[in-house]
Structures are given as C-alpha cells and as structure tokens.
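I am sending you the entry underneath: sequence plus fold tokens. Let me know what the token row says about the fold:
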Amino acid sequence: RTTEALSAYQAALAKRPSPEYALELGELYESLGLGQAARVEYDLLRERARGAEEAGADEALMLGRLEADHGDPAEAVRLLRAEWGRQPGIAVADALGWALHRAGEDEEALEFATIATDGDKGGGVRSALYVFHRGVIEQELGRSGPARRHLREALTINPYFSPLRAPEAKRALTELGEPPVEGPPD
C-alpha cells in the first residue's frame, strides 16, 4: 500500500515537520528507486534538524542516524560519540554502533550493538532495527551463527520494519544460508 504510505507521510509532515518523519519518508522514496525525492527529504531533514538545534533542541541522534546511512559515516560517528558522552542510552548505543559499522569499525560497532540489544548489558528493547544492525555487524565480522539468529529475529519482530532494511535482512539471510549440519564436538 505504497501510495497510501506516501500520502500518510506527506500529510504527517505537513502537520508536524518532524525530522523522524522526513527520514522515514526519504527511506520510503529510496526503497522505491526515487533517489532524487529521497535526497530532497534528507536535505530537508538536515535543515529542520539544524533549525531545531538553533532553537535549543538536541538533534544529534537524528543527524547521526541520517549521516550514517545517507551521508558521511565519519560525521555520524563524531556526532554520536558526543551524544553518547552527553546522554548514553539504548537508542544512542544502536545509532553509534551502526555508524561505527558504516565507518568500517566493526569490532567497536559490535560492542555498542550489544549494549543496544542485550538485556544483560542494558538493552532489551525488542527493536527489529536494532537487532538487524547487530546481525549485519556480526555478519561482517564472520560470525555467521549469531548473524543468522539476529537477522531472523529482526524479521520475526517485524517483517516490515524498514522499506530499505527488511529486504536487506532477507538478502543477508540468503547469503548466510543454512547452518552447516555437524555432529556434536568431540
């Protein structure tokens, strides 16, 4: 129901020009192959977030998320490290872990992804996106079993969690294939 989704996002943005809505609409456009429309939304998001920051709001998390996926991952890491220092939390841990992954720092990325998803380490929010991020980082590190488990969990939590990332999770699971059939260790 893509047409309805586009209309709903456009109506929501007209009523409340939220950076979150702009990011989600941009990603919907991108998933539909409408790169120019997506870039317009991402630019509007940057503009709105900077305006909100000038008015005293803290938009570092939103700008970090945007830059990690649709801009400059190194800038995302810079923004999110500062945000982690100001107010560490699960959302910041996830975003910083993902930004570190996008910047090629997968070992450190996994530390933050684990904080965001592991109940014993402070996480525990059942977020398909957070678990997806962890699974992709694990896959990049060659940890196929945990990657497979977390990517499946992301799709179990919500098979439609993102118009860009849900299909990516499915592709990654296909690449990973089924676990090897082995007997118990000697």
